[in-house]
């Protein structure tokens, strides 16, 4: 990284950067603070060789995702890479493990690399420092799964409506006592939207109850160790999980405690990952076109970069696939009813 790169990031001339480091010449306070921030973020020093931060001269797209361990994001990345190659771009991928502090550090790394733009899924849009940095330094970006303002390029599904539709289907199968297991809302705004839709539909049915909401660590291999203490005395007859991985972990836990799926309890996931379809019975889920999401994320990013007049947001359709681990409500004799623990 050299003085011209610092000048470009600070939106000033190289001569202004020279005056800043030499301490001569007048620089207004606002410009000085902006240069100071760029220097801090990049770690640049004029006396240090430029090899300290190797500048990437090839057209590159930075990709920031919550987890490579979740096959869903791996599928999105595959779509991004496929489309990026078509346009002659390479990719740099950073996994944040659902941590907002890692999101911010990842963006700093992208700024240092001077990537052509950034595609990202963030934990939450609220006061997100990673997004603020990208916008402050005028980096083209597109969001995947996050819904924000009309000014941001984003590709998503209607998570609220999908949650509503899942509850509606379960109610039509006779389920009246329902539960939800979700990734922690402060680490996934998508999970919260799915919950809000699910809850809204249940509230429309006077005979239905949302017995429990359990927020779990989406990275944990066995998040249900203390599930028994988190439930009401009577277990739900159907569960909605905010993603397929959580649903598969819940099914494993239920079977370990002797509860049959779907004969005694129904379970629905979200995402439609292929792993859920090779289990028996196949996981009931909401299928999302993740490969297409990855393709469109690149298109939206490049449209943003070149300031085209094309639509900046794309809502994709989802598909309810509610068979396999979903069945009509099970109504045992009273002496057969038992709690999940």
Key features of this structure:
single chain; 341 residues; alpha/beta; Rossmann fold; 3 domains; 4-stranded parallel beta sheet; 12 strands; 16% strand; elongated
Can you give a write-up of this model?
It holds the Pfam family Peripla_BP_3. One of its GO terms (molecular function) is DNA-binding transcription factor activity. Keywords: DNA-binding, Transcription, Transcription regulation. This protein is an alpha/beta fold and 341 residues long. It folds into three domains: 3-42; 60-156 and 291-316, 3-Layer(aba) Sandwich (Rossmann fold); 159-289, Rossmann fold (3-Layer(aba) Sandwich). It contains twelve helices and twelve strands. A six-stranded parallel sheet has the order 2-1-3-4-5-11, sandwiched between helices. A four-stranded parallel sheet has the order 7-6-8-9, sandwiched between helices. Strand 3, helix 6 and strand 4 (141-144) form a beta-alpha-beta unit. Helix 1 crosses helix 3 (29-42) and helix 7 runs parallel beside helix 8. The N and C termini lie far apart (59 Å).
